[in-house]
Design goal:
three-stranded mixed sheet; 421 residues; two-stranded antiparallel ribbon; Cytochrome p450; mainly alpha
Length: 421
């Protein structure tokens, strides 16, 4: 303590030290309210149901997640939070708030919330659907959209779609030439072999993209085909109108060709209405913000999981007249006649919106319409005696019918050889 006594005896040291201490105290005194104000300025998290310690709200969700989330929307509003164990999930069910996420702040919310199961399926998340936003994802998407789904490649692969359609209709194609056929694996391999600098794709990425095509396109098309057929068999007048359009555009002496598809406006409206009531991915693919943001006046932390509830929005009476009724004509009138799958209308976006909109949209739309037009033009469809159509759904990887549709086809074309040539 001798050193302190020696300095304490120095009057100049004591006064300067006291001045510095007073200055520091004054600065802290001034900064404290600012810091407190900044802390208070951070908005709260969205409202939401209380859960249990450790497990959160998981025990109360049940098996039908899309229905539960719609119920919670009615209780807590268009944006609310749910804890799944230690994972914060924020559910958005308003077109205005969806626009903030997928359009206004798209760069921040463009990454997927990927779990270990998805990483295993997609070879570490190197595919298009789950790859993080960045140069690699942009390269993959550009290659997929501009090369694989180009008009020329879609036309080249039409032969395969046509033959598969005939196979499904139990037609035989003996002795048919196979020139001009090409599948998407061949297209990918050609792109990889060329490697002209525009695209540098590894074999792992190639396999991951093929998984996207199989899971994202095939399963979705199969599910949506069943939904459309179920809705048509439940609404016989709508089925009659579809058949009338096909008879007029295609003719009873011909099979459906892809050149007929743009003219099938009523069938297009039927498909759109089915996607409205039964979007295959009711929350699209969950996103995660790369930094904390404010949405709808609430704090959305970095790393949280964002569920865009397209299922609830497309069934909400605030945005749709008679939302639970199957009315294809709504997509033919002036109100929704110009609505498409581009994601620009935030009341209707079954394929997503923004930079992460479904990359295979063009292929999926084209294939689904061709399959349905071929089935409906070639056959009359009836239910087995005494059975009824059930349009209840069940949540899963895609939202499917709870009970499979069973129908009896009867040939309707004028020439029997059309089924066997």
């Amino acid at each position: 303590m001798g050193w302190w006594k020696s300095y304490a005896g120095d009057e100049r040291f004591s006064s300067s030290t006291l001045t510095v201490l007073i200055g520091i105290f004054a600065v802290l005194w001034l900064l404290w309210p600012i810091k407190k104000q900044r802390k208070a300025a951070v908005p709260p998290l969205p409202p939401g149901p209380r859960g249990l310690p450790i497990v959160g709200y998981l025990p109360f969700i049940g098996t039908e997640l899309h229905i539960k989330f719609e119920q919670l929307c009615g209780l807590y509003g268009p944006i609310y939070k749910v804890w799944f164990a230690n994972k914060l999930c924020i559910v958005i069910s308003s077109p205005l708030l969806v626009k903030e996420v997928v359009r206004d702040q798209d760069a921040v919310f463009s990454n997927r919330d990927v779990n270990k199961a998805i990483l295993a399926i997609t070879y570490g998340g190197v595919d298009i659907a789950f790859s993080p936003n960045g140069p690699n994802w942009k390269m993959l998407r550009k290659m997929f959209v501009r090369e694989m789904l180009s008009a020329s490649n879609l036309d080249t692969t039409f032969t395969l779609r046509r033959e598969e359609m005939k196979s499904l209709a139990k037609a035989k194609e003996e002795g048919k030439t196979k020139t001009g056929k090409k599948d998407f694996l061949q297209v990918l391999l050609e792109i990889r072999e060329q490697n002209n600098g525009a695209y540098s794709i590894s074999m792992t990425q190639l396999k991951a993209v093929l998984v996207d095509i199989v899971v994202g396109a095939s399963d979705t098309i199969t599910t949506m085909s069943e939904w459309v057929m179920a809705r048509l068999m439940k609404h016989s007048e709508t089925m009659r109108k579809v058949h009338e359009e096909l008879t007029e555009i295609v003719g009873m002496d011909n099979l459906v060709e892809e050149s007929h598809l743009p003219k099938l406006q009523y069938l297009d409206a039927v498909i759109k209405e089915t996607f409205r009531l039964h979007p295959p991915f009711p929350f699209l693919v969950p996103r995660t913000p790369s930094e904390s943001r404010i949405i709808g006046g609430y704090h959305v932390p970095k790393g949280s999981s964002i569920f865009v509830n397209v299922w609830a929005i497309q069934r909400n009476s605030m945005y749709w007249d008679n939302p639970l009724e199957f009315i294809p004509e709504r997509f033919l009138n002036d109100g929704y006649g110009r609505v498409d799958y581009s994601g620009n209308n935030f009341k209707y976006f079954p394929f997503g919106s923004g930079r992460r909109i479904c990359a295979g949209l063009t292929l999926g739309e084209r294939t689904l319409k061709y399959i349905l037009a071929s089935f409906l033009h070639s056959f009359e469809w009836k239910l087995p005696q005494g059975s009824e159509i059930d349009v209840s759904d069940t949540y899963g990887v895609v939202t499917k019918k709870k009970n499979p549709t069973v129908a009896i086809p009867t040939p309707r074309l004028s020439k029997s050889e059309l089924y066997t040539e």
